[in-house]
Amino acid sequence: MSVLVTGGAGYIGSHMVLELLDAGEQPVVLDNLSTGFRWAVPEGVPLIIGDFGDQALVDQVIADHGVTAIIHFAAKIVVPESVADPLSYYENNTAKARNLIACAVKGGVKHFIFSSTAAVYGEPKANPVTENEPLAPVSPYGRSKLMVEWMLEDVSRAHDFKHVVLRYFNVAGADPKGRTGQSTPNATHLIKVAVQTALGHRKDMEVFGTDYPTPDGSCLRDYIQVSDLVRAHMDALRYLRKGGESLTCNCGYERGYSVLDVINVVKKVSGVDFRVKLSGRRPGDPAAIVAGNARVREKLGWKPLFDDLSQIVTQALNWERRLHNRQNQESGKKE
Ligand code: UDP
User: Fold this and answer.
1) What pLDDT is stored for residue 334 in this prediction?
2) CATH class label, 2-334
3) Number of H helices and number of E strands within the chain?
4) Is 282 exposed, middle or buried (0-12, 13-18, 19+ CB in 10 A)?
């Protein structure tokens, strides 16, 4: 009996694999290593290098490993990239997810947990946003994920199959034990970028938009620590196994920080007053979005352990230092 983790060599997926191992589960990773890393998959965990949309491969993995649940992380996740190249997002995030769900149904996998996003709400009318708010994504990324939510709803109605959709707000930080973290070389996410700038791995950074209708003019987001986020998946898995009905939950702390707040915390924690350029708005960004989290707490019994921006930034800084040392060691080996 094993749990298939697509994208298990990536940022959130690698934290999920650790969480599953810590809970005594047997994870199997399927990852094409386009943005993930072989080293991020712990020894002893089967790693199948391939595409989650490849039905023959997924059928085989389900049969070979006795997969009883799928946690689907693998996706393209950069909002501005989705605006520039929507078809690759619909191909990867939507069409291939359809194939994966088809394999689950065919292979008798009854439990499916899906990484969705706050981007399905677009620009919410009120914050904190609850799961019942209208769905109006403004980016191809958000739309590519929302279509999968709809597919899952329909499939749950038609087949012996139950799912949990988790709508992530802004995921940040790293494993508190320092085993994995955000490692994508050209990551665009705010905390990663700010931490890299503080450590001198970038010469400066930009704030995208200072004229939003928010208290300081920069965008407001709800930053959730990655181990807290993956624990919600573990809670969801237990919930489904106990016979829970299909469910959609927001994952966030119900607390908003502006881009400028985040930069100030990174400056304070790192002790470095790095250069910040104030720039224009980035396409596809809503002004403010904060998670209403009553449902994930009530239905899944989720309890956050790392709801503290300074701690999240400290984890991100520690991980970035380790990553930098690892990269230096690797380039040293090649020379
Ligand atoms: N952001 C920024 N500078 C950066 C990266 C991000 O000002 O170098 C802003 C971005 O415009 C958004 C917020 O930070 O308002 C969070 O962006 P991120 O890409 O981290 O996550 P998203 O909210 O797009 O999922």
Assistant:
1) 58
2) alpha beta
3) 11, 14
4) middle
pLDDT of 182-210, one tens digit each? 998 888 899 999 999 999 999 999 999 99
* Ligand 1 nearest-atom number relative to CA 205: 8
- How far, in Å, from the CA of 79 to the mean position of ligand 1? 9
Residue owning the nearest CA to atom 23 of ligand 1: 170
- E strands, 22-155, are 27-31, 47-49, 67-72, 111-117
The model's pLDDT over 316-329, given as tens digits with 9 standing for 90+, comes to 999 999 998 888 88
Angle between helices 190-198 and 309-334 (to 10 degrees): 60
Task: Please identify, by atom number, the ligand 1 atom nearest to the C-alpha of residue 77.
Answer: 25
CA of 190 to the centre of ligand 1 (A): 5
Structural contact between residues 26 and 3, judged by C-beta atoms closer than 8 angstroms: yes
* Per-residue buried b or exposed e for 134-168, using 16+ beta carbons within 10 Å of the residue's own CB: eeebbbbbbbbbbbbbebbeebbeeeebbbbbbbb
Mutate to test the pocket of ligand 1, among 197, 208, 257, 265 (most ligand atoms within 8 A of CB): 208
Residue ranges of E strands in the chain: 2-6, 27-31, 47-49, 67-72, 111-117, 162-168, 170-172, 205-208, 220-221, 223-225, 247-251, 257-258, 276-279, 288-289
Q: Could you tell me which residues are beta bridge partners of residue 289?
A: 221
What distance in angstroms lies between residue 131's CA and the mean position of ligand 1's atoms? 22
Q: Is residue 33 packed enough to be buried (19+ CB in 10 Å), middle (13-18) or exposed (0-12)?
A: middle
pTM of the model: 0.96
Q: Which residues are catalytic?
A: 141
Atom of ligand 1 nearest to the CA of 262: 14
Q: Would you list the domain boundaries of the chain?
A: 2-334
Q: Is the pLDDT of residue 273 over 90?
A: yes
